[in-house]
Amino acid sequence: MTKKYVYFFGAGKAEGNKDMKNLLGGKGANLAEMTNIGIPVPPGFTITTEVCDVYYKGNRNYPPELDVEIDENLKKLEKAMNLKFGDPEKPLLVSVRSGARVSMPGMMDTVLNLGLNDKTVQGLVKMTGNERFAYDAYRRFIQMFGDVVLGVPHNEFESILEAKKKELGVTLDTHLEADALKDLVREYKVLIKQRTGQEFPDDPRQQLDMSRDAVFGSWMNPRAITYRNLHNIPAEWGTAVNVQAMVYGNMGEDSNSGVAFTRDPSTGQKKYYGEYLPNAQGEDVVAGIRTPLPLDNLKEEMPEIYKELTDIFETLDSHYRDMQDVEFTVQRNKLYMLQTRSGKRTAAAAVKIAVDMVNEGLISKDEAILRVDAELLDTLLHKTVDPGIKEESVVKGVAASPGAAVGKVVFTADHAVEMAQAGEDVILVRKETSPDDIHGMAAARGFLTSRGGKTSHAAVVARGMGKPAVTGCEAAIVDEDREEVRIGEVLIRKGDIITVDGSHGKVFLGEIELQEPSIGGDFATLMGWADEIRTLGVRANADTPQDARTALEFGAEGIGLCRTEHMFFGEDRIRAVQDMILAETTEARRTALDRLLPFQKNDFKDILKEMQGYPVVIRLLDPPLHEFLPSYEELLVEITTMKAKGCEPEKLEEKEKLLTRIDRLRELNPMLGHRGCRIGITYPEITEMQVRAIFEAACELTKEGYKIIPEVMIPLAGHVNEIEVARETIDKVIKDVIGSHGVELTYMVGTMIELPRAVLTADEIGKRTDFFSFGTNDLTQTTFGFSRDDAEGKFLPYYLDKKILSDNPFETIDTGGVGELIRIGVEKGRSANSALEIGICGEHGGDPRSVEFCHNVGMDYVSCSPFRVPIARLSAARAELINPRKGRTKTK
Amino acid sequence: MTKKYVYFFGAGKAEGNKDMKNLLGGKGANLAEMTNIGIPVPPGFTITTEVCDVYYKGNRNYPPELDVEIDENLKKLEKAMNLKFGDPEKPLLVSVRSGARVSMPGMMDTVLNLGLNDKTVQGLVKMTGNERFAYDAYRRFIQMFGDVVLGVPHNEFESILEAKKKELGVTLDTHLEADALKDLVREYKVLIKQRTGQEFPDDPRQQLDMSRDAVFGSWMNPRAITYRNLHNIPAEWGTAVNVQAMVYGNMGEDSNSGVAFTRDPSTGQKKYYGEYLPNAQGEDVVAGIRTPLPLDNLKEEMPEIYKELTDIFETLDSHYRDMQDVEFTVQRNKLYMLQTRSGKRTAAAAVKIAVDMVNEGLISKDEAILRVDAELLDTLLHKTVDPGIKEESVVKGVAASPGAAVGKVVFTADHAVEMAQAGEDVILVRKETSPDDIHGMAAARGFLTSRGGKTSHAAVVARGMGKPAVTGCEAAIVDEDREEVRIGEVLIRKGDIITVDGSHGKVFLGEIELQEPSIGGDFATLMGWADEIRTLGVRANADTPQDARTALEFGAEGIGLCRTEHMFFGEDRIRAVQDMILAETTEARRTALDRLLPFQKNDFKDILKEMQGYPVVIRLLDPPLHEFLPSYEELLVEITTMKAKGCEPEKLEEKEKLLTRIDRLRELNPMLGHRGCRIGITYPEITEMQVRAIFEAACELTKEGYKIIPEVMIPLAGHVNEIEVARETIDKVIKDVIGSHGVELTYMVGTMIELPRAVLTADEIGKRTDFFSFGTNDLTQTTFGFSRDDAEGKFLPYYLDKKILSDNPFETIDTGGVGELIRIGVEKGRSANSALEIGICGEHGGDPRSVEFCHNVGMDYVSCSPFRVPIARLSAARAELINPRKGRTKTK
Q1: Closest CA relative to residue B662, chosen from B621, B627, B623, B622
Q2: Average pLDDT, chain A
Q3: Which of A200, A497, A675, A871 has an alpha carbon 20 to 30 Å from A735's alpha carbon atom?
Q4: For residues B92 and B83, what is the distance between their CA atoms, to the nearest angstrom?
Q5: Active-site annotation of A, residues
Q6: Are the beta carbons of A557 and A538 closer than 8 angstroms?
Q7: Between A869-882 and A848-857, two packed helices, what is the crossing angle to 10 degrees?
Q8: ipTM of model
Q9: DSSP of B100-149
Q10: B636 contacts in A (CB within 8 Å)?
């Protein structure tokens, strides 16, 4: 049997249906489906996507059977319409539209009124009794065909049109009478002859073939290729071509065209939402030349049509079991549906519709989960800038912490505090932030820095605080002395209002209206279903009791990463930290550490109490010690100035001594330097203090009746001997503290897996640890050899732009490289220790695709920023639905 | 049958032999062997190493059979000697010595004269007719036993001895008469009672048991454990205990003791080498109290003994087929051999002996190769500091480039040039060197820097130039302004002479005599044999024609890494390089690159011509661009000073503009930054210029009749798409240049594999490349997460010291982690492209154990510093002998 290349629909019956999207494209499949379920659709036929594939594989030749099939289907169509293609009396007119599996901009879209020529236009005049209408359709056809099929620029037709209106002294197209339109037809044809060297084709069948060629040709135009590459759409999919009998919404006041949604796409409420234009074609509605009327008007103007239309809405909504986005035309009091498809919606609407449809019995909970794009939830959890706003951002940087904020610009932490106390909203703008700025960051609404990426101090602190931040905004030249930022020609001074959009890395001048977060009842319902389904635990990365509370509110089941270094930055303790670092002897270091112990203990007590009943993974000190010291360069400038201007020699000497100390500690590549467990190994007294603080806090709380589950995490280990040495210190202190308190305590000692070497020796390391937590931020840095801060400010945007990398590997796990390592690590770890608890605490823990990867690779939990916990919960549920895990149950 | 725990030797027959070292220890096995081949050895027996293992595994209990076996063997020994243990008339006296498989310091060594007590000493008097001798033996026994078995400090015995000598007004021990020695025996016993609370044991059998216990006990003392850990010796190996009848070299002028080598251990010449002391025990020779006489003296004094002894030398040398290190004693004109073992030797001797023995028909070429420790060759290739020198170094740093040099200290490159032109040898001392110092480095004999590790600029340049460098010498505070270095209390000024030992990272004040390199005919012979045997190619890392010449002289078969960036640093081109980097537009960058092109082309021409007939791997620009710019901090200081002192605003503005530019380019972690292929991808015009320079050079030379084989290497790729993009540029230029020259050219395009991600996707990358070169320096940095510069100056020494890491992974490939990745990379690469040429160009390519690894993993070649090529050649041959490779043949 030969292949079938063309599928007919019409007269209540179609050869295709909605499940044949791969063959007929989305539009074609849905036109067939609507036909089959009795909805009035102008008849037509679809040339399949296979033809497109055959066409390209065969060096732009069509399958030989195609022509015959088209002829047959044209005949059927003529019969269904009782019209004849090219007939001067009763001409059949058609539209030609592209239609791929998924909606794809960049391709040829539509040619309307195809079949008109100087003869058939007379038939149209007769059929409609309206010469002006007929010639308007004709000149529109020539314009569209000339533009999209023949490639004559659109604006050249518009110039002729404008000239004609000017000549006749009219302003609106609709005021052009039949004669003027006849002129236009003539003039358009001349233009086409001039530009293409060919006559405009009169033969309707030739018009059809050329339009078909244009649709298939547009599948390979640069814009379409770029779009496909961006969305990973294979070229083999191809596009279909839909040929459909024309209906007209512009045949008078008893005609109209409209678009509608079966539910409200912005709130999700179950009420029809749409607009229509009387006496207009569909393209007029979209073009926005006249203001459309709300659908309610139709109820009054054409109650029967309205009833028929809304009945169709109900039918489609429940037939497709999803909110539909439809197009319709009423031609002389007769309703035709031209398109239906699942409608785009806001995050809030997505949640509400999914939950409502479960309650309406239309879909299952599983389907509801699969209906909501997890990434979209982010917009529900923060104030956001409406993505559709007209305002242009003044500059772009790294989208370092999501959400948006409006405030007055300040350049110092102290000013931030001052103005915040005076009741002002402020945005802190710095070259980069440092521990010294913490109080100012707590007071500000959002941050803008000119240096640093997503792992910069500003970014990390901002995400922890749930405040928006744009970092690495290199085009913004921040002059902290003069208190101003220069962005090209624009100068922003202290006190000027700006809006920072940390979700998109944008900065706007002035105040932009923000959308409020909306975590309604439906949101909670959906999350509850997700929790029933998922087998992957979700924890949060949280450093403070405040973070912990947020995490719990968002549904976290523990803390997967509590960074202890942020506790070192507090104003009341940074001095002791610096004394500890600059200590010349172990004794002096111990003395400084003794001063820190009570602070750390209280910090841990607060956070452990907040998280009672849940595990809390506490990471031992990780950053290189020089991060806690004053900036080398600032000190260098200070000393140089002192020297140049002259000053007391003792003072200078003291400063120079400090400079030398800092110089010895600083590193060429701090990311790969003396940090992580390397600190606790070379200075075991630091580990001792931290472990003592954790377990004294835990024991005291246990005595008070709290259930406390600490998990001590050794950072940046790469060799099992590091674990051995670290555990020697850790185990000794734990034994000592628990022994002296005489309490029972469940705890674990584990490690972060964030170096390739740790992965490759995960079997050895797994034997000596209770848990692994994949630190995918650093693992990505070392696997790619990318310093995130440097990469994101320099070559990474170029790489993403040129598609050298399809995704930013710091946002979505690079499954080919980093993911491969994770797989090896999980396998080796479990092979050595089947009880090993395995999670992830890199920022990927809150990225939907990465969560799915973690589920598939067999992790016990993911841990992410508190504000991304709901995203992770939903993603985990989706992952379970797509790939159910056997044998493993959710870790609480 | 029960196990045998004790092995007898004596009376011309032994139960053991030389192949039983594992059971009898080295000493015991060789005593047995000598006995068997008829060499006079005092009889005795060996308690096996198994007893040691059983002892420790059984909680320090001996196997029950042991006592009986010792009794039996003591009887045999009594019979062989015709003496009786504990007999007051004819007492048997024995020595007790430890003896493990390999010589191991830190353990109990020796107890002599065991069996003496107040009664048996009388027997000794009678037998020798020498009361003084007998009591001297007795007091020595008590002293030794008290010290090594009972743990009474040696110096307490010495104090008593000194007091006695003072009392009697004598200076030499030998002047103490019998009565004085009797006093000492009494006083020693009192001391032992005081210190241990126990009487000195009189029973010879108890003395023997206690000594045996002490030997086995010393196997687990901390020094022995540390030594074992350092040398990877398993605790299970255990030590044996040798009990042997005493012979005395101190029985008068007809007696003596000596040590000798069967060949000269420092030159390898085939002539006996040794010394002896008349009327002395062996320990006296070693202790160096009297000056021993050369062996030639014995020829005159005791010609028969000398004949017998040298006959034994010949026998042993040819029986063991290796130079032997022997101990002997002549007791009353009778010769006894007490020990034989393979003698330690210098590198020169090792080479000469190995070659000589092949010529003498004693060993095969294969054995000769296996006899020479490849690492030792290094000392033959550079001037070196004699490792045995007495002088203490004033400071230690990183051993960054091997060899040693003496010269006057200078602090600037210009001074270095100036003084070198005046005929002085100079050592350039800097905080760190930079491209600006190149001319000074070329003029200096060696370098000392206070910052940077083995990959610092100074280190890399020094190794390339074959000059010694000590870097990262943090204890040396370099003040370049005052032209002085302060090391603790020591101040070194310009013009002071120092010696830098780059092989050991040491710096000496003043001039130290250096050993000359010695690459004699034997060296060449051995290397020739190595080349016949090995299947692994050896190339060199060379950046200049000079390097290339050295590499060829040392036997390199190509260049495995030619770094193009060093060509950028030349005085005549650095300006164009900086203009290129600071260019604001692609056009401006191209203009600067056009200025560079002729320089690069000439560079490549020179080096390619030098290497004609051999492949030359040329790496495209690798370091981050900011490395070529002036130092940010220096400029900052300059600007700050200008500001403080006031200056022309335009000048300041210009400087500030430059500072901003540099600030934007510099990176937090340059190692993981915008470097490697990322540069050539974002600025393809740089790649274009380099590839054009390479291929124009190659084509022009080809036309001149040279055979040129360029291999273009893309650095730091981690994703196949990077290769795709880079190759697009590269292939186009190659086609263009070759096409326009119209020549035939064999070339390759490949990549460095130096990132974990490249390894994990080596199958994808292998499909698009002709060769892989493992860049194990960076691969080690990323796999471990170690910045080499930072690690070596900070925590790595601690890690090595505490045995957290057994080897420096930057010197020897970490087989557990980095090696695992290399294995994966080779396998994936070859699976995708069986023709893939695979090599290594990290510094590991010159490390013997790493070369062995590369051989085993199936690489085609290693590439290393020119000065390490011979080491690699020998190591490759050894690897082939140990693990012959099937199916692969050497790459030429």
Answers
A1: B627
A2: 92
A3: A675
A4: 5
A5: 457, 841
A6: yes
A7: 50
A8: 0.82
A9: ESS--TTS--EEEEET--TTHHHHHHHHHT-HHHHHHHHHHHHHHIIIII
A10: 633, 636-637, 640
Q: Rounded to 5 degrees, what are φ and ψ at B185?
A: -55, -45
The SS3 assignment for B398 reads strand
Cβ contacts from A onto B, under 8 A: 199
Residues 770-789 of A with CB under 8 A from B: 778, 781-787, 789
> Which of A479, A719, A778 is the mutation pick for testing B, counting most B CBs within 10 A?
A719
pLDDT of residue B103: 80
CA distances from B576 to B335, B433, B696 (A): 79, 21, 20
Task: State the first-to-last Cα distance of chain A, in angstroms, to the nearest integer.
Answer: 58
Structure tokens at B184: 């000492």
**How many alpha carbons fall within 13 Å on the CB side of residue A373?**
10
Looking at residues B445-467, what average pLDDT do you find?
Answer: 81
Name the pLDDT band for B11 (thresholds 50, 70, 90). confident
The residue type found at B47 is: I
- Catalytic pick from B473, B562, B699, B841? B841
Q: Contact, B840 vs B783, CB < 8 A?
A: no
Give the helix ranges, DSSP H, for B360-400. 365-371, 378-381
Token pair in block for residue B788: 């080499």
Neighbouring CB atoms inside 10 A of A321's CB total 16
Asked if the C-beta of B792 comes within 8 angstroms of chain A's C-beta atoms, the answer is no
Average pLDDT over residues B607-622: 97
Mutate which: A625, A638, A669, vs B, most B CBs within 10 A: A669
| Rounded CA separation B177/B132 (Å) | 6
Residue of chain B whose alpha carbon sits nearest to that of A455: B668
The alpha carbon torsion through A40, A136, A171, A328 (nearest 10 deg) reads: 10
Q: Which of A782, A805, A807 to mutate to test the interface with B (most CBs of B within 10 A)?
A: A782
Cβ within 8 Å, pair A672-B672: yes
Q: What is the pLDDT of residue B892?
A: 41
Chain B residues within 8 A of A790 when measuring between CB atoms: 667-670, 672-674
Measured N-to-C along each axis, helices B649-665 and B574-582 cross at an angle, to the nearest 10 degrees, of 80
Residues 6+ apart with CB under 8 A from B240: B23, B24, B25, B27, B28, B46, B47, B48, B49, B51, B52, B98, B99, B100
Tell me if chain A has a CB within 8 Å of the CB of B721: yes
- Cβ partners under 8 Å of residue B860, min gap 6: B536, B537, B837, B838, B839, B888, B891
Contact A473, A448 (CB under 8 A): yes
The pair phi, psi for residue B145, each rounded to 5°, is -65, -45
Q: How far is the C-alpha of B677 from the C-alpha of B726, rounded, in Å? A: 7
Average pLDDT over residues A751-776: 98
Cβ contacts of A238 within 8 Å, gap of 6 or more: A49, A50, A51, A52, A53, A56, A100, A219
Residue of B52, B382, B415, B457 marked catalytic: B457
Identify whether the C-beta of residue B436 lies closer than 8 Å to the C-beta of residue B419: no
Do residues B259 and B275 touch, judged by C-beta distance below 8 A? yes
Nearest Cα to Cα of residue B348 among B387, B381, B380: B380
Contact B330/B337 with Cβ under 8 angstroms? no
CA nearest to B416, candidates B454, B452, B465:
B465
Distance separating alpha carbons of residues A228 and A234, to the nearest angstrom:
7
**pLDDT tens by residue, B382-425:** 888 877 788 889 999 888 888 899 999 999 988 998 898 888 99
- 8 Å CB contact of A787 and B669: yes
Instruction: Read off the pLDDT of residues A783-822 as tens digits, 9 standing for 90 and up.
Output: 999 998 888 878 998 999 888 998 999 999 999 999 999 9
Measured in angstroms, the CA of A407 and the nearest CA of chain B are apart by 28
